Amino acid sequence: MKTRQYAQKSIFDLEAIFEQSSNNVSELEQLLSELTFRNTAKARTLTAKIEQSLSALSGHSVVAMSASNPSTRHPDSVSIQSSRVVPNNSPAAEEQLQPKAIPDSAMREKFDKDQIDLGTLPSISPSNKANDARAILAAWTAIEALSPQSYKRPEDMATGDRSRIALLERGVPWGPNARSKPKHRLYFEVVLGAITLDKATDELVKVFGEDEERSRPDGKKAAIGSILIDKEGYVLEDKGVAVSSFAWALKPALDLKLGSLGNWPNVEPRIIEHLDRMVRRHNEDGDPIPIDLDVVLNAYKWLVSKFGVPEHLVEPPTFAIKVFHHFKAKAPPEPSLLNSFYLEDLGEATKLLETGKAGTGLRRYMGIGRPDQKIDVLSPISAVEPFVAPSLMPKARWPSKGGHPLVLLQQAAVNAARAELNDAPGIIGVNGPPGTGKTTLLRDIVVGCILDRATAMSSFNKPQDAFSTTGEKLAFGSNAFLHFYKLHASLKGHEIVVASSNNKAVENVSKELPLKEANGRHEQISYFRSISDLIANPKRAGYFEAEGDTPSAPIETWGLIAAALGKSSNRGAFQQGFWWNEDGGFLTYLKAARGINVMREIKDERTGEIIDHVMPSVVVNERPSTNEVDALAAWRKARTVFLKLKETVDAEIASIEEMRRDIQALKGATTELQSVEQRRPSLNEAVEEAHQTAESCQREHEKAKSQIEQDKIMLDSHLAGRPGFFSRLFATAAWKSWRSALQKLSATLQQSVLLAQGIEGALELARTKWSNTESQLQQLDQEISSKCKAVSKLKATEAEARNRMGDRVVDEGFFEREHEAIHLTAPWLPDEVHRLREDLFAASLAVHKTFVDASASRLQHNLGLMMSGMVAGAFQSSAHREFLPDLWSSLFMVVPTVSTTFASVRTMFGDLPPESIGWLLIDEAGQAVPQAAVGAIMRAKRSIVVGDPLQIPPVVSLPEKLNAEICKFFNIDQIEWSAPAASTQTLADQASRFKSTFVTDIGDREVGLPLLVHRRCQNPMFEVSNSIAYAGQMVHAVGPKRPGSIGSALGQSRWIDVNGDAETKWCPDEGDAVVQMLKELAASGITNPDVFIITPFKIVEQNMRRRLDSETDLLRTFGVKLDEWCRDRVGTIHTFQGREADTVILLLGAPKASQQRARQWAASPPNIINVAVSRAKQNLYVVGSAAAWAGAGTSLQVLHRQLAKSA
User: What is the mean predicted confidence (pLDDT) over 221-244?
Assistant: First the structure.
């Protein structure tokens, strides 16, 4: 095997060698050979340069070797005698940590040369435009640059494991004698000194002032930097060093040079590059040698000097951390995160906005393209009706305990979220006061995504066709390869990530979903239950084993619906239980599904002989199809059942939607009928009038005709008496008289004829009018009849709907009910349809499971890669990183939901492109600083942000004035964009198209989609919370009060008035009162009482814990471990958000008259008291001075009044 001459050279060293040897073909070929093992951007650039040089020198192109061969070994290590170090900032420590003379003059020259001036560090200028998105990101970056990761003891950087700390005072811990543990490689992370945060904070306070109850560091430190080395002491090739942003940012902050703080993402690479050069050592022949303590101390001093950190704030290096890295992991470990978790993502978000590549969710979150018109779903309450339409409801639902469906506003939130986001990216905010069923709401969002994926799966006749070949592969072992498969686009976009800044809250969500009691039909519905059980019980799976662990009752689950990931310990436990466990893991399951023999050999421990063969438990419990034919048949059967059931549910919901539309149409139809009926009397009257007119005309006509006849008779008679010839000849008087009479009779007849003709015309008109009005009346009667039938039909539909769905029918009358009745009703769907929706959820899971079986081979490749690619940077090749969304989607296809804290978002998803996660569900968003969610929202297509601005606001460690100065410098509104006034929740509410408005004594408060039905606290806790925070809008839906054994022992909820002396906010007499209450519980025989002791003030928490430290007998009576019980049950209000207990003791403190400002801070606005009282389900006891707290604010007055009423 060819030796890698430059295996331990950094890329910077290789660049230097290239510059010196650009005409040396042999040297260039050695360099090119080494570069085939590297795939960083710098390595690829240098490869291209070398190939050009070789081409120029030899006259032909050079073809690079395959880059897939792994590195073979490090060169022989060099033993270095180390100096002794003491772990404190004493003169002795300084003396012992002075660098020894570097024996090699060349090395001394190299170190001196590395004292490079970084030059003028770039600064960001404020924007002329107020609240510019990039300026907001720059301000957040500045704030986060001053927010380091901290530790009190070295083991805090090693997840509390003291055995992983190697003190440098004992000598160099790395080298030939360093020992790892089985199946792991050993690395060391050397911490390059620290800044004492107490002292640094004092310096900031001198410049920016003190805040009330600002979070104090309490003896914590921030590492200045670190070096990551292998067990021999060689610095890792990539990411071998890390630097603290706080160490760099402190001096500019103290000097009020705030512009440079927002530019840390551009500054960090320059510092890293120089530090990396400094710590890589070489001998006279140019070969790398391990680092020693001289290198460590010189690096520390260089950083302190370069950053200008005042000497009284720093401590020299005293320890290294042992890093045990699983041997199967493809990527080496990375340095500990010394800085804010959010800095890199803030830099990436800035680039996305600058290049126009930011997604809709991020843009709206940052104030760009927000909706111009918002829908207020509470004003009036009937405005919510369109969002509870059956047609918007997911066709499947979570099988809740007791079968209870979502109530009005829960269902509206689910429907609105899916209607708004299903077909278009975006973000919505949901306002979830304490105990209002946020997790319940999220369950149906999860079910909707599973149904959507199952529907997409059903379009494949052969599930393996959903995975297309890419030609990309990765070597595992000597002869094995894992292939990258591209997942069909229809199967992506259904991923669900639950995130929060509150670790307990986010784990609660992902750990609750799989629990047996969370599934009301767990006996009928299961999904890879045995694997879920394995993950839920890591100690049973052989992970997290510790000596002396007390066996606990196993956690029972119903299905592999969610997994708690995020931090490395969670990911490790998941990988071990889900994938690598040979007896119960998913890898074994997939192998069995492919038809591979997975029988386990049982060997005699003494002889090693095989004594039995056992089928792995996962195969026994989950029964995969064991050949392609059976798998395909099972898939098609599950698909048929699913599609048929989906068609049934679709028809049922469509039918009910039709009923809804009919009921909505009923009012209009009734109104129209009434309107038509109102026209009939007048039209009927017109017909009668026309009839009478026609009859009158007829009579007149008959009379006229009779008159004509009479006139004719008269005329004929007159003509008959005409005088003779001579009378006419001589014009006698008789003739003249006759002729005159004739003329009169003729005229009379003519007049009668004319009159008759006129009357005949009038008669025709009258008859026509009569006919027309009669026709109109007939048409109107037909219309009335038709509308009567339509109304009758609609009424019949309404009656049918009410008969089937009762008070779930949401019509106009629905919103005229009492407030409680409206909000406690589940809209529209009857129980039998909800049951069908649960069946469809079960069928969706069956589709997933059989799809997995029928695509096991290709899925195994993707998941095998995923298990090694669960952290950013795991794949060096850009071609491989391109398929990361496909790998993650493959995992989500099996485990639909994963959770993470915001702190771990970049660690897990850092290599994913924007909008590659289908659904992001953020919990306890009111507690998260706005910048915390940027990385998650940036990578999500759809974001549902759930929280409550009236619970604990985000905790900010920086002095208020410093925060204000940063916002002012960058020209952004501090209230709108910066914590604690702003949070992830407030920004999401502003970005959402939906809103609701609460009218309170302190002004109107606008939030997102509201949840109002409270199901946690009894009174008086509910009444207090509802009154001080929610304008009386919440609805109480808790069962009968059950004070339980604690309430029986301590009595009704009440205020325990203690007027004691105090030097600080801690009042010993109040602490004694709490201890006395606990003793009463012990005397009543109560063990491990479900009690929280909550206080607004850190100093009260600390002293209460110390006070309990002296009560070992009491806690022993409770049957609990002293440190564990106090750590879990005693704390500030901030630490208990998202949790609940049977009983809360609210320990107020601050009894002195001079502490009025502290009391007002705790009581106004209502957030702190709201959270404190809403932790208690049954009993609340307030311990403190009633007189002192009387003037603290409205919240305390309401609390005192309600407790007095309760007592």
Answer: 93
pLDDT attached to residue 32: 79
Is it the case that residue 433 has pLDDT exceeding 90? no
State the DSSP string of 915-935.
T-EEEEEE-SGGGS-GGGGHH
* SS percent in the chain: helix, strand, coil, step 5: 55, 15, 35
Q: At what angle do helices 41-58 and 11-20 cross, to 10 degrees?
A: 20
d(CA 934, CA 937): 5
Q: Which of 614-628, 787-801, 868-882 has the lowest mean pLDDT?
A: 868-882
- Cα separations (Å) of 901 from 223, 293, 892? 22, 36, 18
User: Residue 972 corresponds to which amino acid?
Assistant: I
Question: What region, left, alpha or beta, does residue 625 occupy, with left being phi > 0 and alpha being psi -120 to 50 degrees?
Answer: beta
Distance CA 471, CA 248 (A): 45
- Do 948 and 433 meet the contact criterion of CB atoms below 8 Å apart? yes
Cα separation of 378 and 384, whole Å? Answer: 7
In terms of phi and psi (left: phi > 0; alpha: psi -120 to 50; beta: otherwise), the region of 160 is left
Tens of pLDDT, residues 875-890? 888 899 999 999 999 9
- Bridge-based pairing state of the strands 426-431 and 1009-1010: parallel
DSSP string covering 6-43, please?
A: TTT--HHHHHHHHHH-TT-HHHHHHHHHHHTT--SHHH
Q: Which helix (H) or strand (E) holds 472?
A: strand 467-476
Rounded-to-integer distance, Cα 729 and Cα 722, Å: 13
SS3 call for 282:
strand
Q: Is the pLDDT of residue 482 over 50?
A: yes
3-state secondary structure of 311: helix
State what percent of residues in the chain have pLDDT above 70. 90
User: Please, what is the angle between helix 586-593 and helix 831-854, to 10°?
Assistant: 70
Q: List Cβ neighbours of 233 (8 Å cut-off, separation of 6 or more).
A: 77, 80, 172, 174, 175, 188, 290, 291, 292
Q: What angle do CA 1174, 1178, 1183 make, to 5 degrees?
A: 70
pLDDT recorded at residue 1000: 62
Q: Which of 56, 55, 21, 49 is nearest to 35 (CA)?
A: 49
Average pLDDT over residues 797-804: 94
Q: Which residues contact 693 (CB under 8 A, 6 or more apart)?
A: 766, 769, 770
The answer to whether the CB of 902 falls within 8 A of the CB of 500 is: yes
Residue 282 phi/psi, 5° resolution? -140, 150
SS3 at position 965: helix
C-alpha span between 385 and 809 (Å, rounded)? 11
Q: Could you tell me how many residues make up the chain?
A: 1207
pLDDT for 440 equals 87
Percentage of the chain surpassing pLDDT 90? 59
Question: Which residues make Cβ contacts (< 8 Å) with residue 239, sequence separation at least 6?
Answer: 228, 334, 335, 873
Q: What is the pLDDT of residues 40-85, one digit of tens each?
A: 667 777 877 787 777 776 554 333 333 333 333 333 232 223 333 3
For residues 592 and 184, which has the higher predicted lDDT (pLDDT)? 592
CA distance 753 to 747: 10
* Amino acid making up residue 1133: I
For the cut 90, the answer to whether the pLDDT of residue 493 exceeds it is yes
| CA separation for the pair 600, 597 (Å, rounded) | 9
Q: What is the pLDDT of residue 80?
A: 27
The three-class DSSP label of residue 621 is helix
- CA 172/CA 234 separation, integer angstroms: 13
Residue 541: the pLDDT is: 53
Preceding omega of 616 cis (within 30 degrees of 0): no
Per-residue confidence band for 98, with pLDDT thresholds at 50, 70 and 90: very low
- What does the pLDDT average to over 1016-1041? 88
